[in-house]
């Protein structure tokens, strides 16, 4: 590692961190040294965890991709450590190596910092979650849910939905609305796939399940037309629906109590919490009042132009979707290449223009595909349901693992084209 070259430090090595490392190498070439810090040495392919568990596979053995090999191919140094804090003035990050307990803390310096640390899923702030709640956002929770369904579930009512999301406002562009839930593809996906699982296991079906949302409309970022079609299909199947719950107050043995005063009886409570920024980000001048990292549309912090953010950690990423973080990593790579003088502003300065792209499992080899920008003021609102989106969801993961995250540039447009033109 040569200190002659600019030192790029990436915090976080899941979708946004790995993607940023690859895009920086693509656009900036060998003119930078890149170091990536994560507390774990694998990438967790979170979007397919529900599909895996409902199809009888353990996501901890199928959804973890080695991170070190793909990073080494990009000449990116990996450091396994817990990130503890950022000293913006001294341009350094405090870390604690975590391969073995008992380590002391160290500082890692940087010229350019990319924050891709995702968010903290705050189950611990939902009263009663430990005793009465379930979820699917990691392999532990997903396996715990399937154990419950197979061994303890008595066929009673099931509630699936989200707690209230707290979004910041500092530096927010006027076209970015306030979201009341962080990411509502997962509750829709889990409801559909679980209904199929209940049917095939002789334990019920859609009528057992009520989907709830803190917002006036579930998955509102998908656009009114798409959600209208989804709700019509779901109500025809027999799902219950409850909107405007505002927030979850507590989970009990009997069900869920909501902030609007209503409650829902449920034997099984599958919930998605508030996506909160990591505690050490709170109060930093680069963050908004919630703790998400503020950037302009080129993913750069306005007060600290040497700091970038992408993925769930960025304030602009709403809803919290991997596909949106992916769009941002390319911008980060181009901006760093511009700073180094190896890319012209005309090629580098295409601003972030989010599109929601989401493929959710429905069980039985089918999935729904959503492609929309209507929530941000655009015209795009596409919904397709069927076997083709399912094949794309599975194939995308397969290509991702085989290429170490370097899914060819044509794969996403091809998936969009196939879903929107061929299926339907
Ligand atoms: C059930 C479910 C289904 C989903 N389905 C989809 C989908 O179909 N499509 C889609 O686009 N999105 C989906 N999402 C959202 C998607 O998973 C996230 O948007 C995506 O994972 C965000 O990527 P990220 O790299 O920004 O953050 P993360 O994936 O959260 O990664 C953050 C990384 O930072 C590391 N880290 C965090 N804190 C520290 C620390 N202090 N020290 C060291 N390392 C740290 C973590 O170990 C992790 O590797 C889904 C989410 C869930 C829960």
Report what the structure shows:
This protein is an alpha/beta fold. It has three domains: 6-119 and 277-348, FAD/NAD(P)-binding domain (3-Layer(bba) Sandwich), CATH 3.50.50.60; 123-274, FAD/NAD(P)-binding domain (3-Layer(bba) Sandwich); 354-424, no CATH class. Helices cover 30% and strands 24% of the residues. The protein has twelve helices and 22 strands. The strands form six sheets. It has a seven-stranded mixed β-sheet. Strands 10-17-11-12-13 form a five-stranded parallel β-sheet. Strands 14-15-16 form a three-stranded antiparallel β-sheet. Helix 1 (15-28) runs parallel beside helix 9 and helix 11 (387-402) packs antiparallel against helix 12 (411-422). The mean pLDDT is 95. It binds flavin-adenine dinucleotide. The site of flavin-adenine dinucleotide has 36 residues, from helix 1, strand 2, helix 2, strand 5 and helix 7.
List the helices and strands and how they pair.
Blueprint: E1 6-11, H1 15-28, E2 32-38, E3 42-44, H2 49-54, H3 59-62, E4 64-66, H4 68-73, E5 76-87, E6 92-97, E7 106-109, E8 112-115, E9 120-121, H5 129-132, E10 133-134, H6 139-151, E11 158-162, H7 185-200, E12 209-212, H8 224-237, E13 240-242, E14 248-251, E15 255-258, E16 263-265, E17 268-272, E18 275-276, E19 307-309, H9 322-339, H10 345-348, E20 356-363, E21 366-372, E22 381-386, H11 387-402, H12 411-422
Parallel strand pairs: 1-2, 1-8, 2-5, 8-19, 10-17, 11-12, 11-17, 12-13
Antiparallel strand pairs: 3-4, 5-6, 6-7, 9-18, 14-15, 15-16, 20-21, 21-22
Helix pairs in contact: 1-9, 11-12
The structure holds flavin-adenine dinucleotide (FAD).
């Amino acid at each position: 590692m040569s200190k002659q070259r600019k030192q790029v430090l990436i915090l976080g090595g899941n979708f946004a961190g790995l993607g940023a490392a690859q895009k920086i190498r693509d656009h900036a070439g060998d003119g930078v040294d890149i170091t990536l810090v994560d507390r774990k040495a694998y990438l967790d392919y979170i979007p397919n965890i529900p599909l895996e568990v409902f199809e009888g596979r353990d996501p901890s053995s199928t959804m973890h991709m080695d991170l070190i090999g793909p990073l080494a191919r990009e000449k990116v140094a990996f450091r396994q450590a817990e990130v503890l804090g950022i000293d913006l003035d001294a341009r350094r990050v405090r870390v604690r190596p975590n391969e073995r307990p008992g380590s002391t803390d160290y500082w890692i310096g940087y010229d350019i910092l990319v924050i891709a640390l995702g968010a903290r899923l705050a189950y611990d702030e939902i009263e009663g979650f430990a005793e009465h709640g379930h979820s699917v956002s990691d392999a532990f929770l997903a396996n715990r849910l399937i154990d419950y369904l197979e061994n303890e579930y008595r066929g009673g009512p099931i509630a699936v939905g989200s707690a209230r999301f707290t979004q910041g406002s500092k530096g927010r562009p006027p076209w970015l609305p306030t979201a009341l839930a962080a990411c509502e593809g997962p509750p829709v996906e889990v409801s559909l796939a679980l209904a199929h699982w209940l049917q095939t296991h002789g334990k019920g079906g859609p009528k057992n399940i009520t989907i709830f949302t803190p917002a006036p409309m579930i998955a509102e970022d998908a656009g009114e037309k798409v959600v209208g079609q989804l709700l019509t299909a779901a109500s025809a199947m027999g799902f219950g629906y409850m909107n405007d719950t505002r927030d979850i107050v507590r989970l009990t043995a009997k069900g869920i109590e909501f902030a609007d005063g209503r409650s829902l009886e449920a034997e099984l409570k599958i919930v998605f919490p508030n996506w909160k920024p990591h505690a050490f980000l709170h109060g930093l001048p680069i963050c908004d009042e919630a703790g998400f990292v503020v950037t302009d549309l080129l993913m750069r912090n306005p007060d600290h132009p040497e700091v970038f953010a992408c993925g769930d950690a960025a304030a602009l990423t709403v809803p919290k979707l991997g596909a949106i973080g992916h769009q941002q990593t390319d911008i980060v790579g181009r901006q760093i290449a511009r700073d180094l003088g190896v890319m012209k502003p005309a090629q580098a300065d295409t601003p972030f223009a989010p599109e929601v792209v989401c493929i959710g499992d429905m069980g039985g080899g089918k999935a729904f595909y959503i492609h929309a920008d209507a929530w941000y003021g655009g015209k795009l609102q596409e919904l397709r349901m069927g076997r083709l989106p399912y094949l794309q969801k599975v194939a995308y993961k397969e290509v991702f693992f085989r290429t170490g995250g370097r899914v060819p540039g044509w794969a996403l447009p091809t998936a969009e084209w196939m879903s929107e033109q061929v299926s339907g």
